[in-house]
Write a structure and sequence with these properties.
Number of strands of chain B: 0
CATH class of chain B: Mainly Alpha
Number of helices of chain A: 20
Radius of gyration of chain B: 17 Å
Number of helices of chain B: 3
Number of strands of chain A: 2
Helix content of chain B: over 70%
Order of helices and strands of chain A: HHHEEHHHHHHHHHHHHHHHHH
Helix content of chain A: over 70%
Distance between the termini of chain B: 55 Å
Largest interface: A-B, 48 and 43 residues
CATH topology of chain B: Helix Hairpins
Number of domains of chain A: 2
Structural class of chain A: mainly alpha
Order of helices and strands of chain B: HHH
Oligomer: heterodimer
Strand content of chain A: under 5%
Largest sheet of chain B: none
Shape of chain B: elongated
Chain lengths: 488, 101
């Protein structure tokens, strides 16, 4: 028994490292004196341990899937790849928090603690194999996110963002939990493997209860990835939070929620039953609405943070299309999209953060004539905007193309048309920002300063995948293809 | 003799009250109370199903976890509300209108 438990723990090393990291950070934070140099060391320590986590995750990537801790958790290549994306996103956000003025100097190491905590919740959610771990994952993710959103605690906008997040989050988690309770009652267990055995034999009232409960359950996950009816909080929270937190929210909770949604869809709705058909129908509808609402609302924005919030809603809408087909190629497309999306979002937020630190606002005006002030930065930002819009030769194009090819293969032409129209709308508002950067005249001739070589190097390093995955995508495609193989 | 049905009806009533409180009250503390009602409705469901239908301990364990998580959520929620009160000197939800289109 004990031996078996230790055997399980060997699969759980990445999470264990993160837990150790979080606790040691708490202790260090209390012990170390409040000087800026010490904060830097703490952040360096966090980044180092996260890199070790990454190494162990890469090692796990090739292993066969296992169920550990009495079927509570699955470690398979799919969850491992999602965790790699999340760890990279966390490292990016923590690095950004160190140089950003949006995070108070004495809170920089606390940001790392909270971010690692959210990461642990996300890892739990990505590999959840029963309703309890799934719920705990959502809540670990959410509760720490509320704190992160209100991190600029002297400003009313940030506090308001945290409060809105907490209220919407509490409501949706409660509704999801109510759905889960009825699922447990009808299906007789909280283990996914036991629940699916009861699904085919359902009739009459029980089937109706299960259908409604699944919709309730979807509220909780849909809120985390901010799909259409539950997206209202996203722009407000993204705008009110400090920029490193916004960058973090755009990546880690979204990827974790998507992973859980993929797993639940594949486990419960495999096959052509009435339940499965209604679920994929719901996904189609939600995806179309999410894309349209996200992209159309993004047009009129004047704050870049809000723009990126709406654009992330649009991207999630597109990613959900990979679930609709319920096949391996769909998951592969989602994973590839996730990897590319992570790099693009990080760069966009790095540059926005730097400009907003300089000018004290994140409106479009700070991007005016950026090409004259800092040509390199403007070119990279323009390339990332092209990539976000899905233009070749950047990686965003390949990611979008995969999703399109998956849905067209399933002969879902209607939704493909909606997605195509949305791509055009998205192109319009991304190009509006690119035009502001390149063709508009700058308000003054103040050069962009304080952009250290380290920051430049990091942005270039993040930019390399965005550029090269658009041309040499096969390797990463194979990795995400292998990761989608083992999903049940 | 209480049956499963009565528990389910009570939990449904709790759930609906929670929703109505959340949607209609303007006081943020009252809205947090609404969340607690919804969570308790779910916890009651779990225990009732566990006792009458499934005859395993999953439901009991789940409801214990719900209590723990609800406490954590309330702690964080109240801390943020206190911060909001210190800045705005009100806990009226209509005052939270700074972030908008």
């Amino acid at each position: 028994m004990i031996q078996q438990l230790f055997g399980f723990l060997s699969y759980y090393i990445p999470e264990l490292i993160c837990i150790v990291l979080m606790t040691t950070l708490l202790v260090l934070e209390a012990l170390v004196k409040e000087e800026h140099g010490n904060r830097g060391k703490i952040i360096g320590y966090a980044l180092a341990l996260l890199s070790i986590t990454l190494i162990f995750l890469f090692k796990n990537l090739g292993e066969a899937p296992v169920y550990i801790f009495h079927n509570a958790i699955t470690i398979d290549p799919f969850s491992t790849l999602v965790k790699i994306i999340m760890v990279l996103g966390t490292m990016g956000a923590i690095f950004l928090s160190y140089s950003s003025k949006d995070i108070y100097t004495n809170l920089k190491s606390e940001f790392a603690i909270m971010a690692v905590g959210v990461l642990i919740g996300g890892m739990l959610l990505a590999s959840a194999n029963n309703m309890l771990t799934l719920y705990l994952g959502i809540e670990t993710l959410s509760i720490l996110s509320y704190v992160l959103a209100s991190f600029k605690r002297d400003e009313s906008t940030s506090t308001e963002a945290g409060m809105k997040y907490a209220l919407y989050g509490g409501l949706s988690a409660g509704v999801a939990l109510y759905g889960i309770s009825h699922l447990y009652g009808v299906l007789g267990s909280i283990q996914f493997v036991d629940m699916i055995t009861k699904l085919p034999g359902l009739e009459g009232t029980n089937l109706a209860i299960v259908m409604v409960s699944f919709i309730f359950f979807f509220v909780g996950l849909g809120y985390k990835i901010s799909v259409f009816p539950f997206h209202m909080w996203t722009p407000d929270v993204y705008q009110g939070s400090p920029i490193p937190v916004t960058a973090f929210f755009a990546i880690v909770p979204k990827m974790a929620g998507l992973a859980a949604l993929v797993r639940v869809s594949f486990i419960f709705f495999d096959g052509g039953s009435l339940l499965a058909v209604s679920w994929t129908g719901l996904m189609l509808l939600i995806s179309a609405m999410t894309m349209t609402v996200g992209n159309v609302t993004a047009i009129g924005q004047n704050s870049v943070k809000r723009l990126l919030a709406f654009s992330s809603i649009g991207h999630v809408g597109l990613m959900i299309l990979g679930i609709v087909t319920l096949n391996k190629a769909g998951v592969q497309a989602i994973l590839f999209y996730g990897i590319v999306y992570m790099f693009m979002t990080l760069i966009a937020f790095y540059i926005t953060s730097h400009l907003s630190d300089m000018y004290g606002t994140d409106s479009y005006d700070v991007f005016k004539g950026l090409i004259y002030k800092h040509p390199g930065m403007a070119l990279i930002m323009a390339a990332v905007l092209f990539s976000l819009a899905g233009m070749p030769p950047f990686s965003g194009f390949v990611a979008k193309f995969n999703i399109f090819s998956v849905i067209i293969e399933k002969k879902l032409y209607g939704i493909a048309l909606v997605a195509a129209i949305n791509s055009v709308i998205a192109l319009y508002y991304y190009m509006k920002l690119a035009k502001t950067m390149i063709f508009d005249q700058a308000d003054g001739d103040v050069k962009v300063t304080g952009f250290t070589p380290v920051n430049q190097a990091v942005i270039v390093a993040l930019f390399i995948p965005v550029l090269f995955l658009g041309i040499f995508w096969e390797k990463v495609m194979t990795i995400s293809g292998n990761a989608s193989l083992f999903i049940k | 003799m209480m049956s499963l049905g009565s528990y389910l009806i009570i939990s449904l009533i709790l759930f609906v009250i929670g929703l109505v409180v959340m949607l209609s009250r303007k006081n943020i503390v009252a809205i947090l109370l609404g969340i607690e009602l919804i969570l308790n409705a779910a916890a009651l469901n779990f225990v009732a199903y566990s006792r009458y239908v499934t005859n395993n301990l999953d439901g009991h364990i789940f409801s214990l976890f719900i209590i723990v998580v609800a406490a954590a959520e309330a702690a964080v929620g109240l801390a943020i509300v206190i911060r909001f009160f210190q800045i705005k000197e009100t806990i009226h939800i209509d005052e939270a209108t700074q972030l908008r289109n």
